[in-house]
Every structure is written in structure tokens, then in C-alpha cells.
Amino acid sequence: MPKNNILSVLKYVSRMKKEFMLSEIKDYIEEEMSTQDIYSSVSPFLFDLKINATPLEGDFRMTRAISKEKLELTDEEKERIVSFLGAAAVPGQLQKIIEQYIKQKTTKDWDDPIVLEKIRKAIVAQKNAYWKSGKSRNISYEKGYSILAYLAYQFPVYFVQFEHILYSMALDGMLKTRMKILDIGTGPGTVPLSIIDFYKRLDVAEVAIHSVELYDENIEAYESIVPEYAKNKTRLSVAKPVKANLVDLKPEDIPDKIDLMVFSNVLNEVKELTIEQKAELVKKLSEKLTDDGNIILIEPADRVNSTEFRKLTLALKHLGLGIYSPCSFIWCRGCQPEQCWSFEQKEDIRPPHLMAKLADCEEAFRYLNTDIKYSYAIMRKDNLSRVSYKVPPKAKFASLSDMKKYVGKRINVVCSLMSGDLGDKKYSVYKVCDGTSRKQVYAVLPSHHVVYENARLKEERYGNVLELYNVLVKYNEAKDAYNLLLSKESIVKKVE
After folding, report:
1. What pLDDT, on the 0 to 100 scale, is given for residue 335?
2. Interaxial angle between packed helices 190-199 and 155-171, expressed in degrees from 0 to 180 and rounded to the nearest 10
3. How many CB atoms within 10 Å of residue 161?
4. Where in the sequence is the domain holding 280, given as residue range(s)?
5. Which one, of 13, 12, 71, 10, lies nearest residue 38 by Cα?
6. Considering Cα of 56, then 240, then 15, then 69, what sign does the dihedral take?
7. pTM for the complete prediction?
């Protein structure tokens, strides 16, 4: 029977019954088909049909899905998420699945000395390739041990990092009770695994995960690890990755009605495209977003990748995609991204067993990777922005582009917080931006000048807009940057 007819039957029965067994629709189908064959035929369409399928003794219980509304976290859900992020680590169950995959690939135990040494060598090779520039920079994930090295060294940080982003989006009301998410350049499934882990802490939300990946080795790892971690979770569905090269990807290659499209640490590795060509590719793929859908772009926090990334987000803005966060154009002017090195920073993760075992050697520092720093942007097809504030015409704030004429003077400024604390125990240092300055500007708060009125600087989220009152402008000749020095008389207020 044609697939369209089976889907028509499924739609009809689901309208008549809130709950039924999939085997019941056999009576409406002329062709002889097993329940599993019927499920295989309809499973790619269940999310859009708003039907959930739960395996049950060789059959599937079919139920109507919840409506797609804004996700509002309960206090209990927030507590679970905050508890995890407060002492973040790759969950033990997932560590065991990855360890089992290593055994499957190598035919040896994951902690076999020979296996560990080969992983160490692959990690060093990847790190050496990463720090090369231009065409000589070629980071490959095509071979078995390069995938194992990624899972051991980079995966844990990227895994936790994406849960931070999901939580931030949930707090902002940017997630829905039912989500279709597409991860482009998924590798062995880092983002999907992070999504699965995040949604396990939610009570009723549902998510359908799709992905795109080029390399067979990554797809093999994905299919061994991701479905296993999602097993028996009825509100989670994981589709087989689409095998495709990002450079050649077309809208018709990916699903319709995507709520969230993710490019995590992948666009910086596409060296054959210019920034403008990358922007055109992302813009073209954004056609598959829902009207209120989001695109998350994430890149490493080092200076080269971070500044190139900001140029990409501005190129996308010029093509018509709006920046929801972290940038806010509070002076209603375009910004100059050439020197914009900004990133989010979170608490370090606890190393998984595999990473700790790799670091149990003379040069432990080579194999420990626990700090979370990343540059990101959330793009949308509409003009929604996380911060809609614009500086009033007669407000008594100096723009950061005018710092030269205020050196040695105390002024008021309004700016976005664009980094974590870059300082030390004596001085807290934060990059700030208002979209007008070509030079770097930093807010500096000495520890002995912290008082209630200015302590908010140390407490606010990345991307929030702050008013800084009575700050002293200093020029740092060595860094060719300006510092806004706060004292006990300085006041920091959050712009709501």
C-alpha cells in the first residue's frame, strides 16, 4: 500500500481515538503488513502528525502528543538542571556507553594501556592541527581513533556547554513543549546527546532530534551511542543522521518545520567557503525554520575563531536574519566586529573516567580539558531580540566610541556584558560593548571596591545590558584598549 494511504489511515484513527495500538490499523490496510513494517513506514512522520509511539510487547501504543506551546520550567525542573550544571560532568550511564563503544571499536577494554596511548597520540595530533592557520589547518574526524580522541577530549566540554545554552533559552521562554531540532555537523552526536540529557530532566516536554553528518566513522559512533542513550524515553525520538557535506547541503535535504537549527563548532572548520558564502548557506537553510524558530551558532572562544565568528553573525544580519542574543544594538548603529573577541564562560566540568585515565601520565595537562568557554549567537527570522532597550535620545550616557575624549574623567555608560570574568582575585575584568567602538573596552572592578551598589557587575548574565554610573576612563596603551574603572562610588544597574 502506498505510504500516503497508510498515513491517511493513521490520521483518521488518531482523530477518532486519543489512544490506540498501532496494530489496530491493520484492519484498514488492504496489503498484508507487520506492525513493525507499518511503524517503519510511518515513524518519520509521527512528530508532524502530533502522535507519539511507545513500544509495548511487539506493538506500539499510539497517543496524541501535547500541544506545541512555550516551555515554562517548573521549580522542580529548574532545581534538577541547576543541580546538574552546578557540578557538571558527563553522566555515568553515558560514560559507560562511550566506554563500551571504545571496546567495540578496538576489541580491547577502554582502559587498556595500548588503547589509551593511541587515544593520547590522536588527541595531540588533533590539537596540533587545530592551532594551524589557513589551508594548513585540517582537522579530520574520518578515522576511528580520531573519533575516540574527540569523545575523550572535546566531547565532555561541548556536551555540558550545550546544556548551559538550552537552559538559558528555556529561562528566556525560547523553547517549546514540543521541539523538532536539527544538528548540522553532528559528529558522533554531541549536541543530540546533550539534548537527550537535558530533556530527561523535564517532566512533559517532547523532542524529535534530526542530524546531518558527512563522515561514516562519525555516523557509526552516533548510531552506537545516541539511540542507546535515548532508549526507553518515550518523549524522545532520534532519526538516523542524513549523510551529507555541509557545503553542499540544500533545504530539500533536511526536514521541514524545524524549531531549532544548530551549528556547533563546525562552521570554523569549513575553510573552502568565505564568511559571506557561509552566511548565504545558513540563510538558505533557515528557510526550513518555523516562523518563530531559532538558529544557534557556536564556535570556540579563541581570538581568531571568535572574531571571525562575529563577522559571520553580522553578515547574517545583513542578509536579513535577526540576532536575538548576545548582541544588542542599543545605539541603533551597526557594530564593528573586526576586534570583537567575546565569549561566554561557565564553571569547569569534572573530568570523566576516560579523561582522568588519559591524564594519569607525566604530561597530564595535555589530556585534561575541563574549562567551558565559547562564542555563540542565536539568530531568528523575525526581529525579536533578548534585549529591546535602545538608548533614549537625551540620555546622559557616553558612547564607547567616544572614550578617547573622556580619558581621566568620570562618566556614565550603558553597555552589554560580553564576557565572563577575565581578571584575577584582585581585579574583576569584563569585556563590555555598546556596538559603537572599534577598540576593546573593559569594565574593571577592584576587589577592595566591591560594594552593594556595584556588585551587580559580577552577578549578571552574558549579554545583559547594564548602566554603569560614575566610572573612571583609563587608556591601556599596551593593549590599545580602554578601561572603565569602578570605585565604591560607582553604581551598576541592569536594564530590564
Report:
1. 67
2. 50
3. 23
4. 76-380
5. 10
6. positive
7. 0.87
